[in-house]
């Protein structure tokens, strides 16, 4: 795999930063030739995870990198990090409908379903890092 392009980091400290995360992710997906459906999935997951970073983690960062291998599909990796309270029960948090904040409880589980790869590192008092990877399987020809 080729070296990733420069990482794009967005600080998430306010609602407007969620919009910036969506814009950065959409631009990267578009530049890699992701199909419109793949762009929508990517932006939706990024929006949900950015919102979780702000609401439950007290803010943090989103770092997006794009890997493009010659002859292979592009891979967009986005990592969301916060220094919040962490998640005490990851299995429970990944269940549809579970929420500690009164929401619908579909953000984390929905992002996991939308992503090609999903990883989470967390623990009580340790903050949370969620990484999602999207692969441009049905890329638009450039």
TrEMBL record:
The keyword Transferase is assigned to this record: yes
Classification via Pfam families: HATPase_c (PF02518)
Organism: Saccharopolyspora spinosa
Keywords assigned: Kinase, Transferase
Domain Histidine kinase/HSP90-like ATPase: 16-138
GO MF annotation: an example: kinase activity
SUPFAM superfamilies to which the protein is assigned, alphabetical: ATPase domain of HSP90 chaperone/DNA topoisomerase II/histidine kinase (SSF55874)
UniProt-recorded name of the protein: Serine/threonine-protein kinase RsbT
